[in-house]
Each structure stands twice: as C-alpha cells, then as structure tokens.
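From the methods appendix. Each design record in this collection lists the tokenized structure first, followed by the designed amino acid sequence. Records were kept in a plain field format so they could be parsed without special tools. The example shown here is representative of the layout used throughout.

RECORD:
FOLD TOKENS (223 positions):
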C-alpha cells in the first residue's frame, strides 16, 4: 500500500510538471507573486516593521520542484508489479515440479493461497508483512536457489553468499550476475564486489561474528 501511495504521489507530481522549476523572489517584498503563499514570507514582512537590521538583508527563497519523468514512474509501476509476480511464479514453479509438501500446501491455503490448474493468486504487500507466510515463501525460494548450478562451487560446496546476493538483489542485476557467474572464489571476495546493502547481508550471515560463525563456534556444542 505504501508503494502504491508513492506511485500515486509521483504521478500527480508529474501531471504538474508544467510548474516553473524555480521560484525566486525576495522574502520581504513578495508582492502578489507565488512566494506570497509561503507563510514565512508574510511573517518576516511583519517583523521587518520592528526595524530588525538582520531581516533587512535581501534574503531570497529558492524553491525547486523536481517532477519525475514519466518513464521513471512507469519503471516504478513495473518493478512493483514484478515484485508481486516474483513470489507467485516461484510458488507455481514449486507446485508444478511437485516440490510442495502437503503441509506446505495446507499452510499456504490457510492464507488464501490455493492452486487451480497450477496457478495461484498474486502475493500482496499485506502477505509479505505476515511473518510466518513470509518465512515460508522465502524458504521455498531459497530451496529453489540451492538447486541451481550457480549455487554450488566447483568442489561441490553450497555457496550461501551467492544465494544471499541473488535473494537480496535479484538474479539479473549487476549484483545477481556477479553472484551467478561464480567468478569470486570466496564469500569475502563477493562481498567486496557487490553493492553495500548486499555486502552487509553477506557479512552479517557469513562474516566474523556473523550468524554462521556463532552457529559453528559458540553454539556448536549445543547443536
């Protein structure tokens, strides 16, 4: 819902793109121009009668309205649609390949996600806020990634760093391509090559004092 509101706001700004890009007028003599609508202009105009030397300065208000381009708004709309279809297509793939267990199908159905002729409904922003459902769908997607050829190293080891990068940033952007091409020998190398946000995720899971480090050292005797 928040993304839809932002898109609605951007579309309205775009429709007003004929507004002059810069308003530039004296605070103290706004007259009947556009700047007159700015409350502080009237406020300062009243204070000037108190002979304030500071407010006698020829200060100006510079307001810049930057309206988004139509193609940028369209791109946001497409990305929003793709994000919703991504989870849907992965669930349908899981169903078609008979990877969904009976328990998983039952749990999905409890959230209104059922399959008819192999198709299901779109996954909404509201769905993504439901922790149990979010984790279930996320684990299904990660399970599919784990079976991809690029997720396994040449020595047969599962590369969690590659999976984290693709899961976080998508498969086909710059970060996803770097992860899938397998040109980085270690998680550290990949974390240095990808965007800062994805890098932080890799370090948080696989870095020193990260989740895996704690799991395999501090908590090893408790497993």
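DESIGN:
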């Amino acid at each position: 819902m928040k993304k839809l509101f932002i898109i609605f706001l951007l579309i309205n700004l775009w429709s007003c793109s004929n507004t002059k890009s810069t308003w530039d007028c004296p605070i103290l003599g706004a007259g009947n121009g556009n700047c007159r609508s700015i409350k502080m202009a009237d406020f300062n105009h009243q204070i000037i009668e108190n002979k304030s030397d500071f407010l006698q300065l020829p200060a100006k208000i510079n307001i810049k309205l930057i309206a988004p381009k139509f193609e940028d708004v369209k791109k946001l709309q497409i990305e929003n649609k793709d994000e919703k279809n991504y989870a849907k297509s992965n669930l349908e793939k899981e169903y078609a390949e008979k990877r969904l267990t009976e328990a998983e199908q039952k749990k999905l159905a409890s959230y209104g996600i059922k399959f008819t002729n192999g198709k299901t409904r779109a996954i909404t922003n509201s769905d993504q806020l439901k922790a149990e459902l979010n984790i279930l769908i996320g684990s299904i997607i990660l399970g599919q990634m784990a079976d991809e050829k690029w997720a396994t190293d040449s020595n047969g080891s599962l590369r969690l760093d590659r999976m984290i990068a693709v899961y976080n940033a998508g498969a086909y952007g710059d970060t996803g391509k770097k992860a899938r091409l397998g040109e980085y020998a270690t998680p550290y190398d990949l974390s240095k090559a990808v965007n800062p946000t994805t890098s932080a995720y890799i370090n948080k899971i696989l870095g020193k004092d990260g989740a895996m480090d704690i799991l395999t050292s501090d908590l090893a005797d408790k497993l």
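APPENDIX NOTE: Residues 82-145 form one domain.
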